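Retro notes (design track)

What went well: tokenization of the new backbones is finally stable.
What didn't: we kept losing track of which sequence belonged to which structure.
Fix going forward: every design gets posted as structure first, then sequence, in one message. First example under the new rule, 241 residues:
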């Protein structure tokens, strides 16, 4: 069966980066923003990580946004919820400086546009740990615009995270397609390739590959953006037959 839609991961896939370098730089910016409001840097970072874990464990009973802020309030008290506007302001402004902690590969935007030109639909299945405003910024850092994707997942609009298979079930539901009609492209063996267990086709982009368990990646189609285009051409042929 030919694919109809290509789903992309963002960080480390369309947006090249060393995740440790990006996270460290991002937290420094956040801590600097929050310090005048009484947030000590080390405890703030610990609280954000704890809230991130709450989102990863989310079971869909609420949005990831709600899961994060419930956990954050459990650490700092209910009064901390009024500071959500402070964090929103951070993502709109200071977070833009985090671009320096990520890379840029012009092949990313070129490949997405080439795929669309072949008649395939595209969406962004990025791990929804960030608010929409931050996700839209990171999309623009790739040379693409948010409007070039049918949809993209953020912490406001979904209640699961990778590698939970329910995250992918919900993404498939939003496409209106069957799993086997979708191709998931990502750089993380654990978080992205698990989509294959839901009959989605997968492609492991190896430019910034993350393989924490040291899996044999030869079991997956893999390679660079040029290799991805060659792989997709197989489905183009199938559509013409």
């Amino acid at each position: 069966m030919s694919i109809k839609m290509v789903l992309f991961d963002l960080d480390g896939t369309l947006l090249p980066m060393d995740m440790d370098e990006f996270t460290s730089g991002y937290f420094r910016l956040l801590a600097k923003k929050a310090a005048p409001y009484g947030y000590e840097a080390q405890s703030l970072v610990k609280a954000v990580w704890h809230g991130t874990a709450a989102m990863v464990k989310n079971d869909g009973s609420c949005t990831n946004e709600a899961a994060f802020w419930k956990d954050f309030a459990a650490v700092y008290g209910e009064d901390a919820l009024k500071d959500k506007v402070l964090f929103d302001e951070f993502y709109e402004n200071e977070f833009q400086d985090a671009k320096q902690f990520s890379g840029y590969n012009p092949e990313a935007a070129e490949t997405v546009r080439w795929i669309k030109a072949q008649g395939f639909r595209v969406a962004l299945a990025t791990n929804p740990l960030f608010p929409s405003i931050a996700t839209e910024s990171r999309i623009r850092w790739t040379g693409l615009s948010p409007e070039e994707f049918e949809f993209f997942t953020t912490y406001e609009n979904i209640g699961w995270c990778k590698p939970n298979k329910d995250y992918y079930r919900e993404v498939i539901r939003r496409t209106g397609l069957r799993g086997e009609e979708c191709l998931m492209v990502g750089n993380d063996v654990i978080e992205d390739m698990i989509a294959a267990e839901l009959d989605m086709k997968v492609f492991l982009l190896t430019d910034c590959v993350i393989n924490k368990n040291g899996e044999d990646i030869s079991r997956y189609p893999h390679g660079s953006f040029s290799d991805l285009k060659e792989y997709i051409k197989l489905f183009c042929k199938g559509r013409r037959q």
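Added context from the reviewer: The two ends are 12 Å apart (CA to CA).
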